[in-house]
Amino acid sequence: MPTINQLPTVTQVSGGDQLPLYVTNQGDARRCSVTTLLEYFSQNFASPDYETIINAPTNSGFNIDLGQQSNNVFLILNPTGTFAAGSVTLPPVASCFDGQQIVVASSAAIGAFSINANGATVIGAPSGLNIGGGWTLRFSATQDTWYCIASDPSASEISFIQAGTGAVTRTAQDKMRDIVSVQDFGAVGDGVADDSVAIQNAVTAKRNVILASGTIYSAKDISLSNSQSIVGNGTIFTAAASATNIFSMANASPAISDIRINDNANSSAAAIAVKTSRSATITNVAMVNVGNAISFENNGVTGCNLARLSNVDAEQITGVGVDIGSSVSEMRWVNGHLNGKVNFVGGLGKPQVGSIGWRQHTPNVGLARGGHQLTSINCIGLDTGYSLHDAVLTVFTSCIVDATSSYGVQMTGACDKVKFTDLFCAFNAGIYVGGTSANIQFNGLETYNIGSIPIWGQAGWYEIAGPYYDLTVADTASVVVRNWTGSKRISVAAGAKLIVDDGENYEGKSVGTVAAGATTYLGVQGQTATINDAQWRAPYDCYIIRLMPTVGTAPGAGQSFTYTALINGVATTLSAAISGTSFGGVDNWSGTLVPVSKGASINIELVTSAAAAASMHSCILQIAPR
Questions:
Q1: DSSP E strands, 318-435
Q2: Cβ-based neighbour number of residue 195 at 10 Å
Q3: DSSP for 80-118?
């Protein structure tokens, strides 16, 4: 039998390999596997001894001195909060033994965690501790050095490099700090806890704050300034108790986007206040149940200008949707919807008294004002749609005002250079322009059902008494209208001026047929036997220049329909006739223009011959300004 020295040498073993066993009285006739030997060692040799130390630091900058230790150390840290800094002092190097280990674990994050090696050297230790993180040091007596043999690295110790040419290496912590979340600062986001402080701290720490989707924040008086921004992802806000605003915006280029404000009841003012600023931006913001939605304010010294709004809606308004103060200039708004709160009783509703969609009350205080452009803005279900006082240099394009219980558009004071292009105005008390307002233009105006109540409206819908006119020009105001579609009922004060440029058409018509041998008067609502029930008033000094009648049935052989323009009930020389088998197509220009004074009544008289066929009638009367 060979001796051990005669056996071949191997460099690897497995659990099933056999080892010889020797006992004095047994010789070497026995053997066991490597696995069996390891089980024996595990059961009969204890693990190294550890001294467990538990410490609960109470403030940032703490230090824990481990002192002289004869065993390994297990240091458990239970800080009372997340601390920016902390440290540990290791045992004196002279007392350390070879292979000694120190294990550290922390239940909270410590941003900067340093090690005092106490005469030794430390290699590879992390510079911070994460929540639940830790590391293990082992001592080498021959080198007086502690080596980190295991660690939970912090983000500051992990490298990151972006794909692409020219990318540089950064730490993962630096990369993650590109974007700040309000949760990083303790926001709860349950719609109950007041998250104002956490959100403000996040904004202060990093200008661009991105909010998580599916969260609801209760907040108040969050201040955005100098390129600071809040970016949501459909994130919802409600006003916290005792709020003045939810957000205020000031100085250069603050921004809010992609949020929803569900309730502003706790605010004493607007949900969003744009204060003295330049280039504030509000994008993709929807508001519901707001008293006042957005206000543009200033301190009367430096003003507020170049604000930009896009896709901003507010519903259930009880106060003012968008309020423009003095010294606010060059504001742009594209795509918006302002819907008032409608109070329903028995299935029928009425807008909240005092609610206004767009309010532009801007007396001259010596600073820039006006220069505003609004495109595709709707005001619906309010007391007043657009309310302007001393407003200047403002253009409204492709706007709608519908179902308001007072005026759709109301201008007072000294409004100047205000233009509406393609305005649809319906189911309200019409348009009112008064005071000394001048250079007021409506290009492409459609008025519809002025003075009527919507099908869902309550009796007593209107807050102002009739009669109701499509357009009222009061006091000494001056208005020009081009391309007007509607019934064109007007009221023009003696000192006021209304010009309907490029002429104006009035259409008189019958409802049903008119019999033979009749004399009747054609009006907007149909024919009437009473002249006063089918008349218009001349909006300015003008001429009647043509009559253009058409019929549904020709009068018949030897028969005729005759149409005559009347001024103040007196027939003029302007008339047109359809006879025989003709259905119309008559375009009768007056050889001599028929002058009409401002405010005079105008009628279209229809006379059918004794045996003329019963027919429906329509006749357009055109006037032109003198």
A1: 320-324, 328-329, 332-340, 342-345, 348-351, 356-361, 372-380, 384-389, 392-402, 409-412, 416-426, 431-433
A2: 27
A3: SS-EEEEEEEPPPGGG--TT-EEEEEESS-EEEEEEE-T
Tokens for 386? 């657009």
CA distance 374 to 296: 15
Q: Residue 6 — φ and ψ, nearest 5°?
A: -90, -10
What is the Cα Rg of the chain in Å? 43
Identify which has the larger pLDDT, 511 or 377: 377
Residue with tokens 């404000």: 261
Contact 416, 437 (CB under 8 A): yes
Q: What is the DSSP letter of 369?
A: -
Contacts of 8 (CB under 8 A, 6+ apart): none
What distance in Å separates the CA atoms of residue 484 and residue 622, rounded to the nearest whole number? 13
Q: Which pLDDT belongs to residue 410?
A: 98
Q: What is the pTM of this model?
A: 0.66
Domain 506-625, classified CATH 2.60.120.230, yes or no: yes
The whole-angstrom separation of Cα 256 and Cα 219 is 15
Give the β-pairing of 72-77 and 101-106: parallel
Q: What is the mean pLDDT of residues 91-95?
A: 94
**Contacts by 120-123, CB closer than 8 A, 24 or more apart:** 120/90, 120/93, 120/96, 120/144, 120/145, 120/146, 121/145, 121/146, 122/90, 122/146, 122/148, 123/147, 123/148
Mean pLDDT of 3-28: 70
User: What number of other Cβ atoms are within 10 A of residue 227's Cβ?
Assistant: 13
Q: Which amino acid is at 503?
A: G
How far CA 113 is from CA of 60, 128, 152, 156, 237, in Å, comes to 10, 5, 13, 12, 38
In a 3-state reduction of DSSP, which class is residue 614? coil
Q: What are the structural domain ranges in the chain?
A: 4-44, 50-156, 179-279, 506-625
Which token pair is 39?
A: 């089980």
Return d(Cα 224, Cα 503) in angstroms, integer. 52
